[in-house]
Amino acid sequence: MEVKRFLRDICQAPGISGYEHHVAQVVKAAFCRYANEVRQDRLGNVVFYKKGAGEDGQRPRLLLAAHMDEIGLMVTKIEEGGFPRFAAVGGIDPRTIVAQEVILYGRETLAGVIGVKPPHLTDEEERGKGHKIEDLYLDLALPEEQVRKLVTPGDLAVIRREALQLAGGAMSAKALDDRAGIAVLLCCLDELERLHHAADIYAVATVQEEVGVRGAAVATYGVVPDVGIAVDVTHGEMPGVPEHDTSAIGKGPVITLGPNIHPKISAELIRLAKEYRLPYQLDTAPGVTGTDARAIQVTRGGIPTGLVSVPLRYMHTSVELAETEDIKLAGRLLALFIAALDTAYVEGLTCF
Amino acid sequence: MLLKRLSEAYGVSGDEGEVRDILSEELVGHGELRTDTIGNLFVHKNTGRQPRVMLAAHMDEVGLIVVGHEKSGLLRVHKVGSIDDRVLVSKPVVVGKNRVPGVIGAKPIHLQKPEERKKAINIENLFVDLGARSQDEAEKLAKIGDYVAFKAGTREIGENCLVGKAFDNRAGCAILAEVLKEDYALDLTGVFTVQEEIGLRGSGVAAYSVYPDFALVIETTSASDVPGTKEAGHVTKLGAGPALTLMDSSFIAPQQVVDLLVQTAEKHAIPYQFRRLTTAATDAGKISQTHAGILTAVVSVPCRYIHSPASILSLSDWQNTLRLVRAILNSIAEGGLPVCGNY
């Protein structure tokens, strides 16, 4: 399986929170060969079911969740002259979108640029300040009447960014948060083709994570898993960020510890990584995590939850950077976890 | 399309080779080609006629230069030319002769304190990331002194417009190249100059060696007809035709030269506008003060968001600037140069 090509395709697909239909098609096209059944729920979560080899009653139900939505922009009004203003969908740092090209999905697909007050009208003091979202606008290089015909408040826009292959196995793209996680799910399903697993697997591409982990909550309710594992990205090391708050790029997947995570799940992941000599890293979340794990853990009467992450630099910019080897290793670790999963282990998860 | 090829070529000030090669190849057989010690490219079309006219367009673009390697494998960079630091954030780039791809990232919004979010991210806190894991690996991919340029394609946008990088001044280069393929009843030297963006370094020596009777600089200038800017601050308006310079921080156009440009535009019904800003400099500043003074004029293609990887220019402006340059040359060939200095 070509992970890099899949990553490039899926990162370039648009899929702002609440409007994931396009990226969902890309996910379905790649995942359907591994699934016995594919369904989509009323929020848009895409659930891929892969039957386990266990006898009836001996097949634990395992949920894997990675979110397919990305942050983006939504048109709020059209300024005089034909320049749309916009709001952020999800956590966008306005300073990272200045002078970017965008694709605006109006009545037609339109090319645009994010403009800002020009430098000759900016004094020294202003230059020291970061741009606010209200300073920015879209420039479609169209006459005003054309813009008013083609664009309406509520239309969506994403940053136009081609994925870049960098040194080694590093890759930079928009939306690697959390399309990298979707790629982990794909790698995991591919590994499982060659492994015996008793458990039934529900691999879910979730929606609306960036606006408050909404998709994962209903997906988990629908699947009713015995174990849920969220797969997301986590901050990679970089200058200006304390080392203990980040993980290294290229040193393996990150296993999270903390109250949001069932201790026996993190322990099992660590045990397997050691046994199979897979590189791994640890991260601690003192409170709830900002991932689907947050919702999964408290769905229905409670679901034992784990979190495996891919280290990622420059999160929520259009040049997010991750290492493909970390993605493959995360997929392998999850496949080993699933292969080892049996009803005895599941029963143990309620015994504290 | 030559303009697209030129705009996608990399040519930060001091590293204009790729642009120079495209232009040399394009103009073989259209005059006598030579380069000088600083890297200017000359195309001389000697007709034996008077007056001697020099056309100049700068090849270089703003960018960065590698100044160091971090232990982590990230690159430290400084700016080459004038770039607002805030434009650098979250952009792809290429580094060095091998065009190694990289990105300029930013600290994630999640890890920033509210106070931090209000500040611009300046160059001291920005790094080029090639994906290298160590200083050793980074040193193999990029050397100290390697140039770094924005990586951006050129594509159509809106109504007959293009979006891309380095239209300042590849738009001027493309016009000059077109003109040099044509014949005029003048002794004509086209100069593709270097190092304009770091202080008009190439044009002065070029003008010294050519010493023309008249020089016309073909440039690209800001268009700021955008929200939050009152008309007085527009500088130029996109789609309103070539911009004529009256005054910038380096140069004041002689009135007779302005008259020639205006009369020529009006005679040929070419739309034009005056560039309404007295700051920023062009090659005209150096050329006009070379030797005992050289009669000089500037025409520019308006362009939004210059010095960023997502600039917008109007192809009708570009065409009209080309038309105006042609008309000016023909007008001088027919009617001679305006007489200046008789006060």
What does this 3D model show about the protein?
The complex is a heterodimer of chains A (352) and B (343). Chain A has 352 residues and is an alpha+beta fold. Chain A has two domains: 3-70 and 174-348, Zn peptidases (Aminopeptidase, 3-Layer(aba) Sandwich), CATH 3.40.630; 72-159, Peptidase M42, domain 2 (Elongation Factor Tu (Ef-tu), domain 3, Beta Barrel). Chain A has ten helices and 17 strands. Chain A has helices spanning 3-12, 21-31, 124-127, 144-150, 176-192, 214-223, 263-275, 293-296, 324-340, 343-348; strands at 37-40, 46-50, 61-67, 72-79, 83-89, 101-105, 109-115, 137-139, 156-159, 164-165, 170-173, 200-206, 227-235, 254-257, 281-284, 305-312, 320-323. The longest helix of chain A is centred in the middle third of the chain and has 17 residues, at 176-192. Chain B has 343 residues and is α+β, with helices and mostly antiparallel strands. Chain B has two domains: 2-61 and 165-335, 3-Layer(aba) Sandwich (Aminopeptidase); 63-150, Beta Barrel (Elongation Factor Tu (Ef-tu), domain 3). In chain B, 28% of the residues lie in helices and 25% in strands. Chain B contains ten helices and 17 strands. In chain B, the strands form two sheets. In chain B, strands 1, 2, 3, 10, 11, 12, 13, 14, 15, 16 and 17 form an eleven-stranded mixed beta sheet that branches. In chain B, a hairpin with a 5-residue loop joins strand 4 (63-69) and strand 5 (75-80). The interface between A and B is large, with 69 and 69 residues.
Give the helices and strands, then pairings.
The complex is a heterodimer of chains A (352) and B (343).
Chain A: H1 3-12, H2 21-31, E1 37-40, E2 46-50, E3 61-67, E4 72-79, E5 83-89, E6 101-105, E7 109-115, H3 124-127, E8 137-139, H4 144-150, E9 156-159, E10 164-165, E11 170-173, H5 176-192, E12 200-206, H6 214-223, E13 227-235, E14 254-257, H7 263-275, E15 281-284, H8 293-296, E16 305-312, E17 320-323, H9 324-340, H10 343-348
Parallel strand pairs in A: 3-12, 3-13, 13-16, 14-15
Antiparallel strand pairs in A: 1-2, 2-12, 4-5, 4-9, 6-7, 6-9, 7-8, 10-11, 11-17, 14-16
Helix pairs in contact in A: 1-5, 5-9, 7-9
Chain B: H1 2-8, H2 17-27, E1 32-35, E2 41-45, E3 52-58, E4 63-69, E5 75-80, H3 85-88, E6 91-95, E7 100-104, H4 114-117, E8 128-129, H5 135-141, E9 147-150, E10 155-157, E11 161-164, H6 167-180, E12 187-193, H7 201-210, E13 214-222, E14 243-244, H8 255-267, E15 273-274, H9 284-287, E16 295-304, E17 311-314, H10 315-335
Parallel strand pairs in B: 3-12, 3-13, 13-16, 14-15
Antiparallel strand pairs in B: 1-2, 2-12, 4-5, 4-9, 6-7, 6-9, 7-8, 10-11, 11-17, 14-16, 16-17
Helix pairs in contact in B: 1-6, 6-10, 8-10
